[in-house]
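>> Question from a student workshop board

For tomorrow's exercise we were told to take the sequence and the ligand below, predict the bound structure, and bring the output to class. My setup keeps failing. Could a helper post the expected result so I can at least see what it should look like? The ligand is coenzyme A.
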Amino acid sequence: MNSDEDCAAAGIARRSTGRTRQRPAVIRAARVADAPQIALVHVRSWQCAYRGLLPQVYLDGLDPVQRVGRWERSLAEATDGRDGVLVADAGGTLLGFVAYSPSRDGDADQARVGEIEAIYLLPSAWGNGVGRRLMDVALARLAEARFDQVTLWVLDSNARARRFYEMGGWLADGAQKTEESRGFPMTQVRYKRTLMASGTGPVLSCLRHAA
Ligand SMILES: CC(C)(COP(=O)(O)OP(=O)(O)OC[C@H]1O[C@@H](n2cnc3c(N)ncnc32)[C@H](O)[C@@H]1OP(=O)(O)O)[C@@H](O)C(=O)NCCC(=O)NCCS
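>> Workshop helper replied:
Here is what the output should look like for this input. Compare the format with yours to find the bug.
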């Protein structure tokens, strides 16, 4: 499943045929029953996106089944509207998810600064606009929850994701951190963007690229 061919296939299809044809995805709130598919998307996306960037032995050892329980617990927790998980659902197949919350950074005002905690798509869905749609809805939710800024952390060597964020108006704010919790160093950089105050204008502002 995590072979070079599996990871390369989506990119080759996109390059040769332009946007790949897929069932249209609906963006909706995640449910507890989505946990197995979210765990699968998360692991497959890591295995392809971080190939060559993180130790292969670590990527090979990732097991979606071991992550289902954590996702079930997280999705079962009541949300106050300031955090949530959205999925892109194509006829029952989840193509990707985005998780958002108040900022978890020690230097942030949690009343004002939201965070995109994670955004991951199945490799076969990359480059089809699904990530952009997920991001737009998550930013609209954060604006409705009255956050006026939003941040995220991205692996410094994750060029695809950094390009995606920069095209969406995000800017690196100079913050950087290196975590060793997985047994190898992972250096991440922080990106930031502004959200307008909630209301018709701001939500439209966040969604200005959604059409
Ligand atoms: C990063 C990721 C979520 C992006 O989602 P995606 O569906 O592949 O990206 P999209 O198809 O929506 O973006 C397509 C294009 O629109 C651009 N774009 C994205 N948002 C945009 C916006 N708001 N306005 C204008 N352009 C935008 C992108 O840069 C990209 O440009 P390109 O066609 O020239 O390559 C997805 O590729 C992925 O899951 N990658 C692996 C996991 C990962 O790295 N996650 C991030 C961890 S921090």
